[in-house]
Specification:
Pathway: Purine metabolism; 7-cyano-7-deazaguanine biosynthesis. The protein is built from 4 helices and 5 strands. It is α+β, with helices and mostly antiparallel strands and 155 residues long. The chain has a single domain, classed as 2-Layer Sandwich (Tetrahydropterin Synthase, Chain A). A 5-stranded mixed β-sheet has the order 3-1-2-4-5. Strand 4 and strand 5 form a beta hairpin.
């Protein structure tokens, strides 16, 4: 069996650890956050079931990199969530995508680039070292489109 202990002496800042010790390294680190949304769409110029109006529970995965700050964080996960909620999800969740997004065929391939661009623009205003490294958009649990920073910058 495992032995469990109760922490009796909770580490305290400026007693057990100093503020200058909170940052462990100066390396770039990738953090990732996932979200889901439900939406309806249909595809134009497509011969198959997806030409009809239908819906998905999409999953979005963001990979954001940067250098750790003075307390050892790249970006607070809550900040990524706030950008998602206020600037991206409002256009997607429980929406008819053909109506909400710019004029495009609402394929996962087109949508993932739009989502990348929205997150990239939002992060540019926060800190210079932030980079969106990738975005994955799952249309089903086994099918997704992905875009990566290097592809977006070199195209």
């Amino acid at each position: 069996m495992f032995g469990f202990t109760i922490v009796e002496n909770l580490q305290k800042i400026n007693e057990d650890i100093e503020k200058h010790e909170l940052k462990y390294h100066n390396k770039r680190v990738l953090v990732s956050k996932e979200f889901t949304f439900d939406a309806a769409h249909h595809l134009h110029c497509y011969e198959g079931k997806c030409k009809n109006l239908h819906g998905h529970t999409y999953q979005v995965v963001f990979g954001v990199s940067g250098y750790t700050d003075e307390i050892g964080l790249v970006i607070d996960f809550g900040d990524i969530k706030q950008i998602w909620k206020e600037q991206i999800e409002i256009h997607l969740d429980h929406r008819y995508l053909n109506e909400m997004l710019p004029k495009m065929n609402t394929t996962a391939e087109n949508m993932v680039v739009w989502i990348y661009e929205k997150m990239h623009t939002a992060l540019k205003g926060k800190r210079e070292d932030f980079r969106v490294e990738f975005v994955k958009l799952y249309e089903t649990p086994t099918s997704y489109a992905e875009v990566r920073r290097e592809w977006m910058e070199h195209e």
